[in-house]
Design a protein that fits this description.
The longest helix is centred in the last third of the chain and has 13 residues. A hairpin with a 2-residue loop joins strand 6 and strand 7. This protein has one domain: Hypothetical Protein Pfu-838710-001. It is of the alpha+beta class and 179 residues long. Helix content is 22%, strand content 49%. It comes from Micromonospora rosaria.
C-alpha cells in the first residue's frame, strides 16, 4: 500500500512557473476540467483535525467519473489514498450518503499534468482561488511523509519562481474563503 505525498503552492507568476518547468524538461498535458465534490464523515466539521479521518471525493473529468477516498496520515497532504472509476456519479453520491458521508465543498479546476523525475506536477487554475502548483510522489505506507515533502519543497524552491507554500487542501481553502 502507498501513500500520496504532496506539496502545494499558490502561484504568483504562472508564465514564469511554466517556463521554469519547461527548462527542467517537464512537459505538461493540455488543460482538462475537473469537477470535484468533496465529502466528509457525518459529524466532522472544518476546523477539526483531518488526521486519521477518511474523506471522499467524486470527480468528473471528460465525461468519466472517479471515486477517491483519502485518509490524512501526518498532515492534510500526506494521505493513504484509494481511487476507482465509477459508472454513475449520482449513484455513487447516494452510496456515500448512505455510508455516512456528507457533501462539503465543490471544487472546479482546470488542470495540466506532467512528470518531473519521480514526481507528478499539477498546474491548477482553481475557480475562486487562483493558480496553484502541486508536486506529488507516492511512498510506501510507513515512509516519512514529512521528509518527502521537504525533498519536494526543495525541488519547487529550485525553480526560482514566486510561490507561497500552502498546507491545506483546496476544499479547506475554499471553505475558508481564501481567494
Amino acid at each position: 500500500m502507498t501513500q500520496e505525498i504532496e506539496v502545494k503552492y499558490r502561484v504568483f507568476d504562472e508564465d514564469a512557473l511554466l517556463a521554469a518547468l519547461r527548462a527542467r524538461g517537464v512537459v505538461l498535458s493540455a488543460p482538462v476540467v475537473q469537477d470535484d465534490q468533496a465529502f466528509a464523515p457525518v459529524g466532522w466539521r472544518y476546523g477539526m483535525s483531518k488526521r486519521g479521518v477518511p474523506f471522499g471525493r467524486l470527480r468528473t473529468q471528460g465525461g468519466r467519473h472517479w471515486f477517491t477516498v483519502k485518509r490524512p496520515v501526518s498532515n492534510e497532504l500526506v494521505c493513504v489514498e484509494h481511487e476507482t472509476v465509477v459508472a454513475d456519479r449520482g449513484q455513487m453520491h447516494g452510496a456515500l450518503l448512505v455510508m455516512g458521508f456528507v457533501p462539503t465543498v465543490r471544487i472546479v479546476k482546470s488542470r495540466r499534468v506532467g512528470s518531473w523525475d519521480d514526481a507528478t506536477v499539477c498546474v491548477d487554475v482553481v475557480d475562486g482561488l487562483g493558480v496553484f502548483v502541486e508536486v506529488e510522489a507516492l511512498v510506501a505506507v510507513g515512509g516519512s511523509g514529512e521528509a518527502t515533502q521537504e525533498r519536494l519543497h526543495g525541488r519547487v524552491c529550485s525553480l526560482g519562481v514566486p510561490v507561497e507554500r500552502v498546507t491545506e487542501t483546496y476544499d479547506s481553502l475554499l471553505r475558508a474563503g481564501q481567494g
